[in-house]
Every structure is written in structure tokens, then in C-alpha cells.
Amino acid sequence: MSKSEAKDLKKELFTKKKNAGFIMSEDEINEADRFCKGYMSFLDSAKTEREAVIESINLLQENGFEEYDFKNTLNPGDKIYVVNRKKAIIAAVIGSEGVEKGFRINAAHIDSPRLDLKQNPVFEDNQIGFFKTHYYGGIKKYQWTTIPLALHGVIINSKNENIEVKIGEDDNDPVFCVCDLLPHLATQQMKRTLSEGVKGEELNILIGSRPFKDDKESEMVKLNIIDILNKKYGIVEDDFISAELEAVPTFKAKDIGFDRSMIGSYGQDDRVCAYTALKALLDCKGIPKKTAITVLTDKEETGSDGNTGLNSSYLKYFIYDLAEKLGGKPRQVISASECLSADVNAAFDPTFPDVLEIRNASKINYGVCVTKFTGSRGKSGTSDASAEFVGRIRNLLDSKNVIWQTGELGKVDLGGGGTVAQYIANLNIDVIDVGVPVLSMHAPFEVTSKIDTYMAYKAFKVFIED
Ligand code: MN
Ligand code: MN
Fold first, then answer.
1. Strands 104-109 and 292-297
2. What residues pack around ion ligand 2 (CB closer than 5 A)?
3. Which CATH code for domain 6-112+266-465?
4. Of 447, 365, 355, which Cα lies nearest the Cα of 408?
5. What is the CA(415)–ligand 2 centre distance, in A?
């Protein structure tokens, strides 16, 4: 065989995957950049699961979706949504075909790692005021020190009133932070392992330092802080017990790089898939054949348990109710349904090449990532999509010019992670993970590629339009 024959044969037989920058037209790259402007403003206004629900409702209503009451009748083309306890949302467009062939679901999560306040958070130590926190989700604790933090959430007071808190986002607002030791005095701390470098109970948030007034009472700084909060929000110390307050980075979403090819922001896991899955439904062309559903869930980062997480029955109930309403048998409809578990994957980082297996790692700018299975150490805790379903999805993406890649989260035996896929699979639904590769995942400032984000949107859209 001559050299040129081998070259031709390679072209024919070897993988054709390459950087999307070599494949996409300039127009399409511009379109991706334009699409990401909307995504970046979503990131800035939806930093918590509650805010993501509110922003989603705004977008849904602007696009003709109405809150659904199960007393109403449903017709093909109807656009509906239901909200679960202000922290999760399901939206749907009713399809034109019979329901027995199932629904098409894109499922993403809208909770992100952060620092939650404890229920007795306020304390004063040596005339400095702090909040105690319990971190939420998997974080590298040292990353959450010495960055500006904002406080978002709700407080339910003794009259059962709902008090919204959002402080630190406006340019005139104060911000908060967790302090770290100066290097000069950190000799002992530097000997700790990285995971212990800053401990959970050391993640105390700095909230004030000025005493109420100079008299003989103790805890004057704490009193001054609670007095300020009382005047601003009408709350007393015990109201924190019935509060959900989340400290998140104050950073706004930014273009990254001289070429502006990437996005840096807090909370891209998994709002990059939440926004794209929601937009796919909003932009869905005409009336889909199968009822199209986007579910944006809570509690993925803590294992999907709880009534707003996808390990609860709320998605199943929604599907059952819709199936009945549309004249189908619920069990038959759910079993015939298909789902893309829309969640991020770990992008290959050349600075830390050892943790990923390069032949099976996702890379930024190679398109949306399709992950057959998650889990770790013998595929523990995975749903492992069937070859048939992977085949269906890859052929669909190829036929619609969606640039995609495959990727596995980490080397075998090195670690791993799960998504909501297994909980959806447990409902007897065909499901596969499809999402955007992320650099610095779970850090206060995560990085994605604009092209991959756009390709995720295209993937979720062709899936429901097919
Ligand atoms: Mn995720
Ligand atoms: Mn995550």
C-alpha cells in the first residue's frame, strides 16, 4: 500500500472529530457568540435555584407559556409550566402525536455549589461579626476565601412573611468575604493537605466590625449588625432559623480570552445546560410531534434527594398527570419517553493532564459532550445508556449538523461523579448525559466555550424537534 493510500484510508476510517473552530462557518460562530450574550445575562440574574426559577418564568411568559392548572384541558401546541416549591420548574409544549409514544425530556439542574448560612449564623468574636456557613455541594474550600460574596435568599419571619434578600450585587451594595491567613503566619496551615487547607468550620463570612455603642454590654458588634438587619428587613435573630440564605460570588459573567471565545462565571454547572435546555424549548419550531419537556431541577449537587430534587416523584407525577390528561396510560407513556440528562462534564485541562484519559476526555471547543455513562470505580452509580440509545442520539446529532464529542469524567478509579441520569433511568426512561465541558468545575469562577454552549442548545433543540 502506498503512502497516499494510507492517508486516504485514515481519512475514511479514523475518527473525524476535530475542533469546531475548523468546522463551523464564520456566520455560525458569530451566531454562537450572539446566543451566549443571552446566556451570560441569565447567569448574572440567576445565581440561585430560586432566581433561576424566576428568570425561567419570565422567559417562559414572554414566549407565551402559561402556568398550568391540572383542571385545564390540553391541546397540541399548548405551552405550559409548573413550579415546584419555588426551586424547580417543568415546562412543556404539548405535541401533535398520540402520547403512547412517550415524551421528550431535557433535564438540567439549577442549583450550584455555594456557602449556605447555618440556622444560627450570626456570631461575634473579638469584636468582629461573622456568619457561620455549611457549604453546599462539592467545593474546594480554599477557593471560597478572599473573594467578594453576595447574599441571596429568603427569610420567613414570625408572621410567616417571606422576606427576599439580595445584597452584594448592586455596585452600591456592601459585599462579604471569608478571610484567609497571611502567608507570613501560615507555616502551620501550609502543612495541611489541600482539602484541609481551609476547613469547613473556618468558612466564616465577615459581616461587620463596628459596635452598637460604647457601653458595658457584650456582643456589641453582633447587636449592631442585627439592629441594621432589623431596620432593613424587620427581622430578629431567630428568623434566621427559617431562612435559606446563600453566599455566592459577586462576579458577573465575562468573556474570557483575547479572542473572547470562552465564558467565565459563577454557577455554569449547570445553568449552562439549564439555559440552553430552556431556550431549546422556547425556540422549538412549530408544534413538536412528541410532547417536549424541559425540567430544571434543584438539589443535584447534594445527590438529588429532597422534594425539589429529581430523586423525588415530582417529574414522574407531572408526566403521569399529563399522560392521563392527554388520554394515555401513564406507565406506558413514561416507559416510552426519552431524556437528555443535560449536565456538564470535566473539560481536559492541559495544566492538569493526569486526571483525565485523553482519548476519552471532553475538550473545550469540540462541541457538546455526549457521555454514555457516569459513575466511578466499576461504573458504580450510573445508568449507562444502551448502545441503541447512544446510536440514536449520535445519528440524530450528526444528521442535524450538531458538533458533538464523547467524554468520560476522569480516569477509571481516580474519582468521578453522577448526574440526574440515573434517577430518570430508574423511571424506565431512556436517558443519556449530554452537556457542556467545563474548566474549573465547581470553582467560584467556571469556564466554558461559547461554541460548546451553542452546540448544547442545538442538541437539546433538535432532540425535541425530531
Ligand atoms: Mn452538574
Ligand atoms: Mn456539579
1. parallel
2. 269
3. 3.40.630.10
4. 355
5. 14
Determine the distance from the C-alpha atom of residue 290 to the mean position of all C-alpha atoms in its chain, rounded to a whole number: 26
- Which ligand has the minimum distance to the alpha carbon of residue 296? 1
- Sorted by where each begins, the domain ranges of the chain are 6-112+266-465, 114-249
Task: Specify the pTM.
Answer: 0.97
Ligand 1 center to 344 CA (angstroms): 5
Integer-rounded Cα Rg, in Å, for the chain is: 24
Q: pLDDT, tens digit, for every residue of 238-267?
A: 999 999 999 999 999 999 999 999 999 999
Quick check: do 6-112+266-465 and 114-249 share a fold?
no
Give 301 Cα–ligand 1 centroid separation in angstroms.
7
Torsion angle (degrees, nearest 10) of CA 277, 89, 345, 153: 130
What is the 280 CA–ligand 1 centroid distance (Å)?
18
The rounded distance, in Å, linking the Cα atoms of 177 and 146 is: 6
Task: Enter the C-alpha cell of residue 93.
Answer: 409544549
Q: How far is the CA of 241 from the centre of ligand 2 (A)?
A: 27
Fold (topology level) of 114-249: Aminopeptidase i, Domain 2 (2.30.250)
Q: Which residues contact 168 (CB under 8 A, 6 or more apart)?
A: 148, 149, 150, 151, 174, 175, 176, 250
The CA 113 to ligand 2 mean position distance, Å, reads: 7
- pLDDT, tens digit (0-9, with 9 covering 90-100), for 91-139: 999 999 989 999 999 999 999 999 999 999 999 999 999 999 999 999 9
